[in-house]
């Protein structure tokens, strides 16, 4: 539904060039909720703004629902009209709602329809339908200033849906909201995704958002996508940074000459007593350093960090046993963990 290939965006800023996107290839399938994560400055906003051509990419191609938007941009009047039409099929939701304070809720929702030249009567009916869909039928005549943050975002979503889009882009839609309101807005996006078959591309810096609503996710760093896939694929990828952040377990080895493993359980494997079997079969003592259960991508999943006596070379057979039981086993390298933690501290300090 959304494809970018070789997308770059270079800004000219005070005489120097800033590369915000450095060759981004993204594939968002029809009907999925796709989350793009990354630290501040990674290029997330530039990406989403290039997808609907709010920002003109420097090079590369953006296709939405089979239409090459980059080919239409800046190619005369006729193509401009086609681009406007294609863009009306892409809704956009903003972090700070971007509502007009002098217009009522209903008039805010009608605005894109006015621009599309829809008649007054049709606009009113459509706006009321949309307000009903987002649970705000009783606020049609209120002004944005009279609404809570969550209600304002619902109006923003209703407005984004006015042109009957197939795609909804969301730029940090929940980051100005409290946790409870965030949950209800995410639920609304999920319901719209399922009821209307809407494809949603959202950018966020919150792992919880990805956990709650996303089918797929990508991690951006310095203008590049460094990991992407369905949430289940990512969780099954050894060494995936997104998986580790989506589902963190911690705990350091209790001393030298120990093997630390992250064992991920899902489905049937979660109900088997594998740890006690492992201990009995190989006559080893196992310490549990950390454990967590969670629902990720709608599936229950568990992860446990365990420690076995002896170095990894001495534990190849027990590790093989765990893998034979269908468990995902990642060997935790303490030295790498220490480096990763130091990087996190350094990034946080910047
Ligand atoms: N209009 C602009 N002019 C010059 N540089 C820009 C412009 N917009 C973004 N940048 C730069 O491009 C890089 C990527 O910015 P972008 O806003 O896309 O990142 P982001 O991941 O969305 O960050 P945040 O989470 O803080 O919004 C940054 O270095 C930023 O300073």
UniProtKB/TrEMBL annotation:
Q: Which GO MF terms are attached to this record?
A: ATP binding
Q: Which residues form the ABC transporter domain?
A: 2-247
The family database entries (Pfam families) matched by this protein are listed as: ABC_tran, NIL
Give the UniProt keywords, A-Z: Amino-acid transport, ATP-binding, Cell membrane, Membrane, Nucleotide-binding, Translocase, Transport
Origin superkingdom: Bacteria
Tell me which PROSITE patterns the record gives. Answer: ABC_TRANSPORTER_1, ABC_TRANSPORTER_2
Q: Is Kinase found in the keyword set?
A: no
What is the official name of this protein in its record? ATP-binding cassette domain-containing protein
Q: Which organism is it from?
A: Streptomyces antimicrobicus
Q: What is the lineage of its organism?
A: Bacteria, Bacillati, Actinomycetota, Actinomycetes, Kitasatosporales
